[in-house]
Amino acid sequence: MTWHIKHFNELNTRELYQILKERTDIFVVEQNCPYPEVDGRDVDCYHLFKLENEQIAAYARLLPPGVAYPQASIGRVIVPAIHRGKGYAGELFARAVDFIQQELNEVEIKIQAQEYLCRFYGAYGFEPISESYLEDGIPHVDMLLKERRVQQQV
């Protein structure tokens, strides 16, 4: 079980295929939400993922400032169903925040959170900055982290 963080240009074809497959399986199929999952932003992003038995066990897309928002962002956060309940989501998100703050040297991070996950993201210091709204038929809330977190051992 190994964590990886790679810029788009560093991904091999197998990694890219697995990432896009898992994102589509979760966001389009599982959530029954037809939308353009491949949105053109991946090429400008970092991709954080955990491999377990050569399969994606957790994944997040890390967007530098200016790709989606003026601030850095974290999106496409997934843990496939067979890996849920193992604590991967928390470890994934802590690593994502740490990478943006430590490696990209960005303090503010904006996310578009599914409303039911606001408590989860709030545990990392994110605060709501919008009212609830529908995005592709799913309630979302924009959230912002404004302070540098103390780096956690992950």
UniProtKB/TrEMBL annotation:
Gene3D superfamilies: 3.40.630.30
Entry's Gene Ontology molecular function annotations: acyltransferase activity, transferring groups other than amino-acyl groups
Keyword Transferase: yes
Residues in N-acetyltransferase domain copies: 6-151
Coiled-coil boundaries: none
UniProt keywords, alphabetically: Transferase
Domain of life according to the entry: Bacteria
Any single Pfam family the record assigns to this protein: Acetyltransf_10
PROSITE patterns: GNAT
CDD domains documented for this protein: NAT_SF (cd04301)
InterPro entries hit by this protein: Acyl_CoA_acyltransferase, GNAT_dom
Protein name: GNAT family acetyltransferase
Organism expressing this protein natively: Paenibacillus bovis
